[in-house]
Amino acid sequence: MNMKTLLGTAAGLMVATGAYAADLPGEAAPAAVDYVKVCDAYGAGFFYIPGTETCLRVKGRVRAGVTYTNNGGDLNDNNDNVQMRADAYVGFDARTASDIGVVRSYFEVAIDDDTRDILATQAFIQVGYVTVGRQDEVANGDGLYGINDSTWAPGDFTATGASVLVDNLGGGFFIGAGIYGNTDSTTRPVLWESGEQAEYQLSGIVGITGQSWGSFDVSGIYRSFDANDNDIWGVKATANLKLVERLSLRLWAAYQDGGDGGALNNIAGEAVENITDLALAASYQVTDPLAVYAGVRYQIVDAAATSAADDFIYGNLGVDYELAPGLNLQGELDYGAQDDWNQFSAVTRLVRVW
Q1: How far, in Å, CA of 134 to CA of 132, rounded?
Q2: 34-353: which CATH architecture?
Q3: Residue 148 pLDDT
């Protein structure tokens, strides 16, 4: 057989093979697998846990920076301090629709900036309006804007307890109440023990939100400590106003009474009997990535003659710049003073959120 015959035979075999192959049924293409299916029922970032109807969101934050502090006045001996600081948290938010409403569980762990301990900062279950577990209390503790925002302490803590928050009364009105252990300590709270006075905090709030002009609310707290007249009660009114485009304003006033037991302190940490707080803060969005803010808080105190406490003024001035989505560079100056005590600090840090 010559070369031409061999080539012709090979070509014929190739054509025949191709023809037979074209007649054979091919295998079906594999179906695409959704390894992560987006859940849009509860906002951005949620996805379905595979094989379930539960939606999960994993969120977190990392902060790292440096702080300079000058402690002045006779009480502070005029010393300077520079610290590197870092903290972080990660939270897991799981939600499932049910016949009794949305069943939500939230768990959050954080690295404490001071002790370096890893703490379960929040752990609660929420069904409809009811929340039980370790949670932020319902009272509004908002202070100024910024890093050192000088919050209203009785309304700004996390503790184990139970609360009800009804936020769909119509017209933006809402109301809430809760009972908690009387401290934000990570130890297990004891509300009552035989032969002892109950120790707890009651918190309540009523307000209106979602308005074109902003929001307004009134909070109240009562904290029972022990049998030594250490109970604290307080009220706070907060207005968050939208004056013009890009400009936000916060005004609040509060009163606290600490009884005679010395359980109440002013911003400087000095024991007082009662405090009247007045505060004003403003934030302006200069450009989409750049915001500037400033605020001032004044405390009028009533203290025993033996206490070093006096009226206290505190203010801050800061800037917040978004370097990239979820990454911000922040800087702030703070100053606080009372009679023979003053403190100045400067902070700069990077913040990453997701």
Answers
A1: 7
A2: Beta Barrel (2.40)
A3: 92
Q: Which pLDDT belongs to residue 264?
A: 80
| Tokens (6 digits) for 270 | 């000095």
pLDDT of residue 290: 98
pLDDT at 181: 84
Token digits of residue 68: 């300079």
If phi > 0 it is left, if psi is from -120 to 50 it is alpha, else beta; for residue 122 that is beta
Q: What is the pLDDT of residue 147?
A: 95
pLDDT at 199: 79
> Which segments in the chain show pLDDT lower than 50?
1-23
- Comparing C-alpha atoms, which of 61, 111, 25 is closest to residue 354? 61
pLDDT at 15: 41
Nearest residue to 302 via CA among 256, 253, 235, 236: 256
Question: Quick one: 299 exposed, middle or buried, by C-beta within 10 A (0-12, 13-18, 19+)?
Answer: buried
For 40, counting Cβ atoms within 10 Å of its Cβ (0-12 exposed, 13-18 middle, 19+ buried), the class is: exposed
The residue count of the chain comes to 354
Do residues 116 and 110 make contact, with C-beta atoms less than 8 angstroms apart?
A: no
Query: How much is the pLDDT for 201?
Result: 87
What pTM was computed for the model?
0.82
For residue 272, the model assigns a pLDDT of 83
CA atoms within 13 A on the CB side of 220: 6
For β-strands 341-353 and 274-285, DSSP reports them as unpaired
